[in-house]
Hints:
Helix content is 38%, strand content 15%. By secondary structure, it is α/β, with parallel strands linked by helices.
Amino acid sequence: MTDGNTVNRPVARPGVMAIAPYVPGKSKGSRVRTYHKLSSNETPLGPSPKAVEAYKTAASHLELYPDGSTAELREAIAGAMGINPAQIICGNGSDDLLGMITHAYIGEGDETIFTEHGFLMYRIVTLAAGGTPVVIPETDKKADVDAILAAVTPRTKIVFLANPNNPTGTYLPQSEVRRLHAGLPKNVVLVLDAAYAEYVRRNDYEAGIELVGQSENVIMTRTFSKVHGLAALRVGWAYGPEHMIDALNRIRGPFNINAPGLAAATAAIKDRAFLEAAVDHNAKWLPWLTEAFTELGIEVTPSVGNFLLLNFPEGSGLTAEAADLFLLEEGIVLRRLEPYNLPNALRMSIGSEEANRATVDALARFMKGGGEQAAHG
Length: 377
């Protein structure tokens, strides 16, 4: 029996059910057995063979708990990056770390700031912590430092900056990131989400290591899911001031990375030759695809990541929705971007040569009139 003040099942705290859950990109095409999945920014080269071997070795001891301190992986990361292992924390993907950072520094009434096409998880972790997301317009699909700084209030506790940004592929140069940091109050955390840092080949780019080393309020997050090809294992890491790492270690789960994941990630970051091969593959196909799509009449936002933002011409009837339907019939899976407020754009991961050429060929047919048939057929 219930009265007017009780309900007959548990109720989530206010705000939880208002969170739009994260929806990943589709995995398969339509009506075909062979498909090219280019919706999740996965590397076409897969993981390092050394990482696979380390995974298999660890899998023979699944009865044992993993190393809760992640000492070996932190030492490997520190060696590869030239940083202090005591300033590194590892997590179940960088999503886990973004959640930890937010829970550590955001409470009811606090605000986080991020840009309008920023990673969807920034909103989710903010709302989950009881905070208020403040979304800032971009300029030419790029973060606007002046607009971000103008939005800072006494309630601001975190600024999230994906650099490079997903899904646009744009980035801020080191000088602009440092200008952003200099303009923030000392008690505001600047989170530099550098998930795609390894792919960037620009002399004016810096992932955040130097700024973290010189600051008390900057933390950089990274992932093994992209260039290292370990997306299935969910391993990420962050580098920050020791006082911030100490705070995060107090709230993280005691065994928040599985043992095969730890082993594979440790081997992966030591395999520099394989990483460089993945970066070289991306460096070859990123400009090739950009030029090919531009010639088809599709506007491509300049990207420094392992993906492209394809903007379809307005008013032509050749919409992103129609293109997506057409490509799915061809067994090609790209990412729809309505959740990012980019309804007439698709995001394409840089794939294998076969996948890249197949996508260009399919979109060439679509742009010549095949889209109308797909949209109405």
